[in-house]
Amino acid sequence: MSSKSEKSVIGLDIGTSRIVAAQRVGDEDQFNAQLNAFVTIPHSKFTENSLKRENVPHAVADGQILIYGNESARLADLLGHEIRRPMTRGVLNASEQQSLAQIAEIVKTTLPASTSGAKVCFSIPAPTLGHEENLTYHEATIRQLLEQLGFPEVRSVNEGVAVIYSELEDTNYTGIGVSCGGGLCNVALAYMSVPVLSFSVTKGGDFIDSSAAGVTGEMVNRIRLIKEESFRFNGNLGDKIMQALAVYYDDMIQAVVDGLRTTLSGSRHVPRFGRAVPLVLSGGGVLPEGFRERFEKALRAAALPVPVTEVRLARDPLNTTARGALIAALSE
Amino acid sequence: MEWRARRIADPVARLHYLRHTVGDRTWWPEAEEGRSRVWMRRNRRALAWSLAALVLLPAGHWGARWTRLTGRAPVMAAEPAAEPRLSPVWLVEQQREFEWWSNGLRVERRYEVENEPRRYLAYLVGEEALEMGGTRSAPAGIVYHTTESQQTEFQEGNAGRLKYIGESLLAYVRQNRSYHYVIDRFGRVWRVVRETDAANHAGYSLWADGERAYLNLNRSFLGVSVEAQSRPEDGEAVATPAQVHALRLLTEMLRAKYEIGAANCVTHAQVSVNPSNFRIAYHTDWAAHFPYAEIGLPGNYEQPHPALALFGFSYDPALVESAGAPFRRGLLLGEDRLRQTATAQGLPAGQWRRDRQHHYRAMLKQLQARNEKTAQDAADHTSDE
User: Fold this and answer.
1) Bridge-partner residues for B190, per DSSP?
2) Residue in B10, B18, B29 nearest the CB of A193
3) Is A203 within the bounds of a domain?
4) Are the Cβ atoms of B39 and A267 closer than 8 angstroms?
5) Which of B38, B45, B317 sits opposite A271 (nearest CB)?
6) d(Cα B14, Cα A332) in Å, to the nearest integer?
7) How far is CA B144 from CA A19, A270, B74, B88, in A?
8) Which residue has the higher pLDDT, B216 or A197?
9) Hey, are the CB atoms on A330 and B12 less than 8 Å from each other?
10) Distance CA B351, CA B355 (A)
11) What is the structure's pLDDT at B144?
């Protein structure tokens, strides 16, 4: 925890839609984010030179140019293509052959120069409710990737727990952390920093986008841009896209609340907290205006076995998991 | 612990403290039934691998494998240091009202009373089973208690009230034959129940050293109680400096007199058990902050907990909150010791735990039958006279 160690510690949120790196410099946490996505365009020397000149992260392979990170979304929109994802539903995308190489490239672009040798803590999802997925492969592969990038000390932290580490210092890291990401919503309950239970549901931002696209006939990319730029609860639901987005947001909220109720009720040994605990919402999915109120309403209606004092939004929802991973690494 | 954590302003330092004090999830909620069914269902494959690895791996390698399987390295007990030779302590003067010992200890005798003579069974700790270790009458150890009695502020103006409360307490202890010794708040050492007799201080309890195990310690261990009350906020019982000094002198005297090993000088929270639910620490006095170092003893909290290691007891998660970090280390060591023995037996840990619990029940039943017979014999003997 000395300043020397802080300089060489990195928190990484490796999410389905974004990769965020966090580093502490002095008293300030600094973040660098890239979309965890890429798009391919036919190769030409002119395009390649332009990308080099503009410092756009890219690679050339098999007669194509792969453009990574934030620029991929802009280009996909311009070209009318769908972006491609190295990860899906929180883990490596099996249908993308080069997913690992692509993630490695994106991770490199998020890291400041001369971080080789740093201690890294990266986020991993929780098992999905109702499925016995093997997360070991995902975790081990990302760990190996980071080691190959020159980080000798690599740890992992559950995404929901990272939210708790980032936001719940005022309750001694006791409470519920929810991260609504692109592929999954991750949920964790911790008692004095000790994870008690965690799970994820497969309804995240991508689910909302693709479901809304399906019922409106729009492209997923366009739905995502509309969602990020103008969707809010209790807004103009006369618009078909807005109405579809509201329906699927509600579906996602209900899935998280149902998951919490089922998991808490099914666990015989949730500690006796002796008091109500807070719940923190983070991730890109919680950004629409009115989300917190909508979630709180669903939560109150569900009457969880563990009483919740308050539902609050994380201070910086897009960077919460990375910050939590950073704090986890610093507190080792 | 929570109170302490709140006093750490830096969030990272606070998290560091909590993560290293409370530990990781591999041990806290897990204590036997502490694992949820949901968690079990999700992790049954990992658990199966863990058990298989425990059974199959050679003993020399299991530590490293265990690290990979559960994320927590087995806690290794420090090799017990060779016990320093006890300095002799001898009786200098004995009067009806007091005793004076060569190390400066003065024992007040005004409340001294007799009780049932001390005779008890000790069990040999074997590789596979506990066998009878014969009947003994010398005290095997010391259990330290707090009286948890009424307190008033320790200051000059309250001297009269402090004395009054202390003497009321002594009268109560004498009437109930509760302890062998009480150390009042001024550090005076009062003998209540004679050392040759049993006192009602430990109830359902057990302890073991390297050689022998002892059940229900009223007869086998001496009970020494400090007039103090545990603070509700952090469970710390604050002994006055005079009490700590007196504890040191009394411990020296008793250990020298009966050749009591340091490992058998332990607190009530460490020895107390609840046979109905197989949880330890039914009583929690001195679950933390017992001044082991100040009274010349090693940190006995960190011994592998015998109730966990030998008899398959577990603990309530609430104990993690009230106990200190050294005590929790003793719990981990006890739990690991149980698993290691299960591996050596070629049995799953759960099966071995149930076997140990069954064994404890049988021993307890035998002990109770024996005590009833002794009491009946004593009653018959009295009526014959």
Assistant:
1) B108, B182
2) B18
3) yes
4) yes
5) B317
6) 11
7) 56, 33, 29, 22
8) B216
9) yes
10) 6
11) 96
A174 to chain B, minimum CA–CA distance in Å? 10
Instruction: Give the pLDDT confidence of B76-107 residue by residue, as tens digits.
Output: 444 455 566 788 999 999 999 999 999 999 99
Asked if residues A119 and A8 have their Cβ atoms less than 8 Å apart, the reply is yes
Asked whether residue A74 falls in the same domain as residue A183, the answer is: no
Contact at 8 Å (CB) between A122 and A89? no
- A52 CB-side CA count, 13 A: 8
Domain that holds residue A72: 37-80
Token readout for A22 is 């966090």
Determine the 3-state secondary structure of B353 from DSSP: helix
d(CA B371, CA A265): 45
The fold for domain B91-380 equals: Lysozyme-like (3.40.80)
Other residues' Cβ atoms within 10 Å of the Cβ of residue A267? 19
* Total domains in the fold of chain A: 2
Q: What is the count of residue pairs from A and B with beta carbons less than 8 Å apart? A: 76
Q: Which residue has the higher pLDDT, B384 or B293?
A: B293
Q: Which of B38, B67, B319, B321 to mutate to test the interface with A (most CBs of A within 10 A)?
A: B38
* Torsion region of B84: left, alpha or beta (phi above 0 gives left; psi -120 to 50 gives alpha): beta
Tokens 């190769």 belong to A43
Is residue A125 within 8 Å of A13, Cβ to Cβ? no
Whether A46 and A176 map to the same domain: the answer is no
Q: Which of B123, B35, B71 is nearest to B349 (CA)?
A: B35
Assigned domain for A181 exists: yes
Strands B221-226 and B265-267: unpaired
Domain boundary among A80, A115, A147: A80
Phi, psi of A281 (to 5 degrees): -105, 135
Could you write out the DSSP letters of every residue in A126-171? PPBTT-----HHHHHHHHHHHHHTT-SEEEEEEHHHHHHHHH-GGG
According to CATH, where is 3.40.80.10 located in chain B?
A: 91-380
Classify strands A18-25 and B120-125 as parallel, antiparallel or unpaired: unpaired
Contact B23 A331 (CB under 8 A): no
Q: Count Cβ atoms below 10 Å from residue A121 Cβ, excluding itself.
A: 27
Pairing of strands B212-215, B120-125: antiparallel
What sign does the dihedral A150-A154-A158-A163 (CA atoms) show?
A: negative
**Residue B271 near residue B169, CB atoms below 8 Å:** no
- Report in angstroms the alpha-carbon separations of B25 from A270, A328, A330, B2: 12, 15, 19, 17
Query: What's the CA gap between A123 and A196, in Å, rounded?
Result: 17
Please check whether residues A76 and A187 belong to one and the same domain: no
Dist. CA A311–CA B128, nearest whole Å: 54
Q: Domain with A269 in it: what CATH number?
A: 3.30.420.40
pLDDT band at A71 (very low <50, low <70, confident <90, very high): confident
